């Protein structure tokens, strides 16, 4: 009887484990598909509306395009392989895929944090030093800074080409993992944690504190008409100004406050959604037996994917210009479809006799 009870108990545990595994795979695939799909569409829309709309080509929006491109890289390189990993239960992309996907994951992650730091500094200069912003906060300068960030981060992330490899896990399945002992990765994780998480948050906290003091405490004029005529004329001709609605060099305007609030929300979401994963990696680096609960790891991953997917939603909710640009982009696609259908119908009518004769023949 005892042997039979043990056998039944083992079978029950096995069936529970199989059910939990199926449940985990189903939930993880569903969440990643929804979040990554929405994030890819949203970030592509951000890039398109900034590149195709003249009034959207401001220094701040250039940094938002860089952030959107980095988020796209995270969603594609980290999110989509996670789906195939869950379905197949093994690594299917080979050695080259392991190196390339890991590289692009960290490249997207690190560039996104650098882009956040860049637009934070740009906002600080534009609002707290408006005279200096006329020469420093320009689209051409923003493009040079973005290129510098991507080049430097690309070189830095090449380190991962030498740190990952294909391994066989306890279940005899292939996985993309550590190449050397896990303890040797502690300096790298600490450096990543300091450079691409702590530093951006410290800089953002300090600068947004100074920005808030200027915007919400100082009695700054709210109307452009309060300025001398020559100054107003020159501001109107400035193509690369900070504020695209005409009040470019007056940081106390309503528009400047709205833009700053929107960017501050992006920074806060970055801090909150990256905190679980960064904390887990940091704590596990000091533990002999790391905490690897699959559901908590899934939670950390979902937070990362959400951080990369949520920014377009924030822009749409908090920026009237982005909302109008998104609406125009969607309407453009809707208008193109009927015109294309009409064109195809006309062509079809012209070719109808030929089509009929060919069918008869």
TrEMBL record:
Every G-protein coupled receptors family 1 profile domain range: 42-315
Superkingdom in the source lineage: Eukaryota
Alphabetical UniProt keywords: G-protein coupled receptor, Membrane, Receptor, Transducer, Transmembrane, Transmembrane helix
Predominant subcellular localization, coarse grouping: membrane
Record's subcellular location: Membrane
Keyword Repeat annotated: no
Single biological process term from Gene Ontology: phospholipase C-activating G protein-coupled receptor signaling pathway
Transmembrane segments: 26-51, 63-83, 103-125, 145-164, 184-211, 259-275, 295-318
Keyword Nucleotidyltransferase: no
Pfam assignment, any one: 7tm_1
GO terms of molecular function: thyrotropin-releasing hormone receptor activity
Region (Disordered): 224-245
Signal sequence bounds: none
Family: Belongs to the G-protein coupled receptor 1 family.
PANTHER family: THYROTROPIN-RELEASING HORMONE RECEPTOR
Protein name: Thyrotropin-releasing hormone receptor
Lineage: Eukaryota, Metazoa, Chordata, Craniata, Vertebrata
């Amino acid at each position: 009887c005892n042997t039979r009870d043990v056998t039944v108990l083992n079978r029950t545990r096995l069936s529970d484990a199989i059910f939990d595994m199926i449940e985990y795979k189903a939930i993880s695939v569903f969440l990643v598909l929804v979040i990554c799909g929405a994030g890819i569409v949203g970030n592509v829309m951000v890039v398109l509306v900034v590149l195709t709309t003249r009034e959207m080509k401001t220094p701040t929006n250039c940094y938002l395009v860089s952030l959107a491109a980095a988020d796209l890289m995270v969603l594609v390189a980290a999110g989509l392989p996670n789906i195939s990993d869950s379905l197949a239960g093994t690594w299917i992309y080979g050695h080259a895929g392991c190196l390339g996907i890991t590289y692009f994951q960290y490249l997207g992650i690190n560039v996104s944090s650098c882009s956040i730091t860049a637009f934070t500094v740009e906002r600080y200069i534009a609002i707290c030093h408006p005279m200096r912003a006329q020469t420093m906060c320009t689209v051409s300068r923003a493009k040079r800074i973005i290129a510098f960030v991507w080049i430097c981060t690309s070189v830095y992330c090449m380190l991962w080409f030498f740190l990952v490899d294909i391994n066989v896990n306890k279940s005899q399945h292939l996985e993309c993992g550590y190449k050397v002992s896990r303890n040797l990765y502690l300096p790298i994780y600490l450096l990543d944690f300091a450079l691409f998480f702590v530093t951006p948050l410290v800089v953002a906290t300090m600068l947004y504190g100074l920005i808030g003091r200027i915007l919400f405490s100082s009695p700054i004029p709210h109307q452009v008409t309060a300025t001398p005529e020559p100054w107003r004329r020159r501001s109107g001709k400035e193509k690369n100004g900070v504020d695209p609605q005409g009040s470019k060099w007056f940081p106390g305007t309503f528009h400047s406050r709205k833009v700053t609030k929107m960017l501050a929300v992006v920074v806060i979401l970055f801090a909150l959604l990256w905190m679980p994963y960064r904390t887990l990696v940091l704590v596990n680096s000091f533990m002999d037996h790391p905490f690897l609960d699959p559901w908590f790891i899934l939670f950390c991953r979902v937070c990362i994917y959400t951080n990369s997917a949520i920014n377009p939603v924030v822009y749409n909710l908090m920026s009237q210009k982005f909302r109008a640009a998104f609406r125009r982009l969607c309407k453009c696609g809707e208008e193109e479809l009927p015109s294309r259908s009409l064109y195809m119908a006309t062509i079809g009518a012209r070719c109808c006799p030929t089509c009929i004769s060919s069918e008869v023949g």
